[in-house]
Amino acid sequence: MTEFRSNALIALGGNLPTCAGMPHQTLVAAVCALSKYDLRLRAVSRFFHTPCFPAGAGPDYVNALIEISSELSAEGLLAVLHEVEAQFARVRDQRWGMRTLDLDLIAFAGQIMPDRETYARWLELPLAEQMRESPDQLILPHPRLQDRGFVLVPLCDIAPDWVHPVLGLSAREMLADLPDEAVVEVQPL
């Protein structure tokens, strides 16, 4: 019997200490915690220091990106990510606030979820509305990944040729489209 495994991209971040230590130590511990599930680690980016967003909202972040393969569905993988976040005292009470650990499912097997129309709505949502509204369902690929240096720089570290299933641009091309200041602020640890 052949198993079917899907590849997924997961962004990791944190800016508060946990039982594992400082944010970079928490990211290492989170990757180890994920390995206890039936997830195969395919690649890990370097760790990067990034400014908190929005500016002044807390300590700066440590960010990274991993590629895994799994037999889980996208929803099943998201549940595992939330479980691991909870192990590191993640509390979901403020959008874009300080956090001990953030595990974002960025892309899953080239899928567009839940459908192209809903995805397009979130892709085109103005920043002011993004800050007030959050989706009540899984949106894939992550509708803001092309705007975020703290996602694209680590993504280019491990998969520069990965192609966005809606935009048709590679990670390298999306990174090149960002303003220079959004790229230079993402510094390797």
Description of the molecule:
- The structure is a single chain.
- The protein is of the alpha+beta class.
- The protein has one domain (6-188): 2-Layer Sandwich (Alpha-Beta Plaits).
- The chain contains 7 helices and 6 strands.
- The protein has helices at 23-34, 74-87, 116-123, 127-132, 149-158, 171-177, 180-184, and strands spanning 6-14, 39-44, 48-50, 61-70, 102-108, 187-188.
- Strands 1, 2, 3, 4, 5 and 6 form a 6-stranded antiparallel beta sheet that branches.
- α5 packs antiparallel against α6.
- The longest helix has 14 residues, at 74-87.
- The chain is globular, with a radius of gyration of 16 Å.
- The termini are far apart.
- The mean pLDDT is 91.
- This is 2-amino-4-hydroxy-6-hydroxymethyldihydropteridine pyrophosphokinase.
- Belongs to the HPPK family.
- Keywords: ATP-binding, Folate biosynthesis, Kinase, Nucleotide-binding, Transferase.
- Its EC number is 2.7.6.3.
- One of its GO terms (biological process) is tetrahydrofolate biosynthetic process.
